[in-house]
Amino acid sequence: MEKIALLCEKMGVAPEECIPYGFDKAKIDLKVLRRLKDHKDGKLILVTAITPTPAGEGKTTVSIGLSQGLKYIGKKPMLALREPSLGPVFGLKGGATGGGLSSVTPQDDINLHFTGDMHAITAANNLLSALIDNHMFQGNELEIETVTWKRCMDMNDRSLRDIDTPIRKDGFVITAASEVMAVLALSSDLDDLKMRLNRVLVGYNKEQKPVYVKDLGGADAMALLLKNAMNPNLVQTLDGVPTFVHAGPFANIAHGCNSIVATKLALKLGEYTVTEAGFGADLGMEKFFDLKMPYLDKKVDAVVVVTTLRALKSHGLAEDFSKPDLNAMIKGLPLLEKHLSNVQTFGMKYVIAVNHFYNDPKEEVDYIMNWAKEKNHPIALCKGFAEGGKGMVDLANIVVELAEKGSNFKPIYEESDLPKVKIEKIATKIYGAKSVEFSKKALAQLDTYHSLGWNLPVCMAKTPLSLTGDPKVVGLPEPFVLNIQEIRPSLGAGFLVALTKGIMVMPGLNKTPRALSMFIDSDGNLIDKE
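and the corresponding structure tokens:
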């Protein structure tokens, strides 16, 4: 690994554009983007996966490993990932820095406070909450009657979902699902950030007309809290691939992609940018294409779909996915094919990345490799966890070949489609639903938003554990009905959030949180006793 200042120099970032946070991480000033605005973009590779399972798919590990593999074969790769949220870090999922030899460092810093971005986003969000309550307390000149804005906190805490304040009823969302997180992730510079903050919806007045931040004031103060957080964070893989870890919206209840500015920087500085979208191709990938890519001025060149034999067996209803069970793995393959079909629906070229575990049975490995070849699916066995870049050469070579051919992207809905139609197209074309059922509340909200002219893209809030809205339905489901219970405007981000039945925007901790298995030694090192 390189000292961070030397890594910046090798990337082509000037000393005055690199803001070190110690020796192993830095922020990169956004003026680099202005300086490189006429530079040609590199290739953009999007990593997605099948529907996640308790077995683990290792999408981030494969993303990191692919960048290492590209470096191993002589390319100049860049990596662009999301920042972890403390909720999952201390809850069920754990950290988000890869694993084994395909890891990003410094792991503990990235998974914990890092450079303070999450705290800045939380502070900006809650400053607005304080300004709203103070305005109402001090006479309520805007005659605000209904407040839709929520406080936030970067932790899983179900007790904060609904609270009472002296002014009104309120509640918390997790920071990673907050609108300020989405705004920061989708902003192209500070001016864009302020514009988006000003158009955030605060609530409605006594005449049921919308009230925005621009009416209340405070956007500049919020932007002041966020100005350093807007600068992408630079770290590196264990073998020195430059890695931007910046912004962390959840993919089940937000749009699930790292920041626009980090991805743009990577595209300007490298030959190949490897980035990922959260959860499966039904959630993160769809949101990358429909919500993020329009702001990139760059189309994805190839898609990597990650799976594991263990995950396929889990979707094939294996009693124990850690044991050999070829029949269960075969039963899980239709789900993989559905995700590949989703990629093809967008007109994209793809490769299957089988994230290899040391104890994967040879019979199962051979079966999936032969199955893919018979079906004409490009496939690579990935051993990045154990071997780093050397174990990812096959995937890297296929990705280079696919990226050179390019893809022919086609959207699944038209910009002019009404939000209700957009939701129905996502549900039927991507999830495989036979129909969509809207609650009376959701239909009334859609009518209101239509009257206000809010014909925006849609961000689906749905369980990541199933193509359906029911997390218990694994594998490729039978035809189903998707239930939409509520539509929330996220005007600063530029989309409407459609919440399926049962979705929570403030998660709770599981029965045995990972926090209870974390220990710190006298030198400050994390010891995970899982």
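(Above: one complete record from the training split.) The first strand starts at residue 18 and ends at 20.
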